[in-house]
């Protein structure tokens, strides 16, 4: 969410009515999240000036660990230097820390492609935004789950019940530090997650939703303490239910 919001912001800066805007003091502390969107807190260090040049050799974009040769345009300006400076800063301050973590395994290759392409400045801001929106579509639609074995058949569903609090275990990356609360596309994906975790014996798909509209599922170590709840469904491993009295 943070990276996509940042890319949308940089897309606007690259195509602003004032021209391509560069953030000269590009640091994480210069941004805040407001209602799920990333905002710049200080525009004092923003500029529409692009580096003047006479030849391509005048257009090297330097960072502490990398340098990128750019073209000198017929107008005597280094082509796209503001856009590329913003994008590489997004890569080194945000993408490298956030993109490799917590995505479903099937989506990680797409995020690695974005990471590598922005790190080498092979992608401009348009390509980067398109790549992020493709990943978001796959994530929200559940298309990344195709051709997976159906595991929900290994669970008994009990409608009208939820599990008592306090029977959870901790997992990563959980939406709650008190237990294992993960985003899922469906109960089928939740069953696959439960199967992959040795502690998990049951789960419930809650009414809570993430920013993408995906429900949160709570995974538990026990299936014995059930509480009536007309809006809930508990899924219990058949192997667990055979050894416990429900």
UniProtKB/TrEMBL annotation:
It comes from Nyctibius bracteatus. One of its GO terms (cellular component) is extracellular region. Residues 2-116 form the FAM69 protein-kinase domain. GO terms for biological process: skeletal system development. InterPro entries: FAM69_kinase_dom (IPR022049), PKDCC (IPR042983). Residues 1-19 form the signal peptide. This is PKDCC kinase. GO terms for molecular function: non-membrane spanning protein tyrosine kinase activity. It comes from the Eukaryota. PANTHER family: PROTEIN KINASE DOMAIN-CONTAINING PROTEIN.
